Amino acid sequence: MRKFILAAASLALVSCSPPGLLSSVNSFVPGDNGARRVAEGVVFAPGQGLKLDVWAPRRADHKLPVVIFFYGGGWVAGSRGGYAFAGSGYAGQGFVTVIPDYRLVPGVRFPAFLEDGAQAVKWTRDNIARFGGDPNRIAVAGHSAGAYNGAMLALDRRYLQNAGVARGTIKAAALLSGPYDFYPFTEQRGRDALGAWPRPAETQPVNFVTRAAPPMLLATGGADDVVNPRNSRALAARLAGAGVPVELKVYLGKSHVDLAKSLSRPFRTTTPALNDSAAFLHRILGN
């Protein structure tokens, strides 16, 4: 049965890589990674009607570090439910994990999705203790466009500041396959999401690196033809130059999709992205 599930999922992933499929298959794999969804559809930005889910380990005797995971989808697609596999994955690694939705293109343009992300950080700071999380140990994570969102929230202090959140609230970041240095925009999704902003330099995470940035892990696939690995290398170099602790992981031969799907239990061995990012965050945040 397990082989059948993996084969069916792999065929679908080759063509479209739907996150919802990963979450569905994830739930059918035998065994238990010790994670559960403890809150679903919690409104965190009432003016926008945005909601989030919270995942947590089944058993814990103390407040745990927190990961806010922002999903990818080129700023035009994605949902918190579709990324249940990521919530379950990080919760299984010992984190209380928040998966927030955010507004998407074409309904909005830059920087609306970052403003939504800042509201998710604010909600987490104010409420995560009720779900077993430590509000003083919050990290951001994400894949692709979600990694971009996490990077901008960690680096450009304006978004958290405007939401009434201190910059130091984000203690670390673990970002997968993200675009961080990609102007001029050569790809349609980037132009649609960010191209109308009159000051393009303000859309690029590399331009906001200072020594106050939190420690970061940047992971990318060496064969990523969706977001060039150069983005991770450029941001890592800029962080290192500013004296910020940074780890760069380049998984040779691995694609853009490979890093996302390896967060799910059926494909966990595709890359070590989950184990590497969890280990990094535990080193920074503690257990």
UniProtKB/TrEMBL annotation:
Molecular function (Gene Ontology), one example: hydrolase activity
Keyword match Nucleotidyltransferase: no
Location of the BD-FAE-like domain: 52-239
TM ranges: none
SUPFAM superfamilies hit by this protein: alpha/beta-Hydrolases
One Pfam match: BD-FAE
Keyword terms: Hydrolase, Signal
Signal peptide: 1-22
Hydrolase as UniProt keyword: yes
The organism's place on the tree of life at top rank: Bacteria
Name the UniProt record assigns to this protein: Alpha/beta hydrolase
Biological source species: Sphingomonas humi
